[in-house]
Amino acid sequence: xxxxxxxxxxxxxxxxxxxxxxxxxxxxxxxxxxxxxxxxxxxxxxxxxxxxxxxxxxxxxxxxxxxxxxxxxxxxxxxxxxxxxxxxxxxxxxxxxxxxxxxxxxxxxxxxxxxxxxxxxxxxxxxxxxxxxxxxxxxxxxxxxxxxxxxxxxxxxxxxxxxxxxxxxxxxxxxxxxxxxxxxxxxxxxxxxxxxxx
Length: 198
Known about the structure:
The chain is of the alpha/beta class.
């Protein structure tokens, strides 16, 4: 099944009309805290629970469920998981939060953090450097370590999936205190409210 997409501009227009019930941001809590769409709710990809999400929608399964991340890749993965679990009408926000911000649309900003992409590059660089040093100074068999990381990078580029980023996303420094009800919209809150004449 093909995943529907929507541009940030169209999503903003739909929200202005009151047509957007739910927007899930599947980035890490630290990424979300740094910058996010004001009406988005943070549900990190590694904590996404489709059955619980379905039940929280108060039976409004026909309402579109919009999903956003940094650039669209993690949101696409989340959309696939949601569709596989039986949810319908899932929409990926094309270009993610980056495209939303580049379009000049309003965002909520908080404390800055280091992106998962930068963290992954640092970790990979450290492992390659360490493996190369061990190969040079101790034992040539350590060459397998940088070779493994190189193969991982190739796979990541081809599959558009980074397992290391998912692992890093679970690290304590990428977590924040649970948001209060004032800082995040409640899931499914608007799904049970019908617009006049609707």
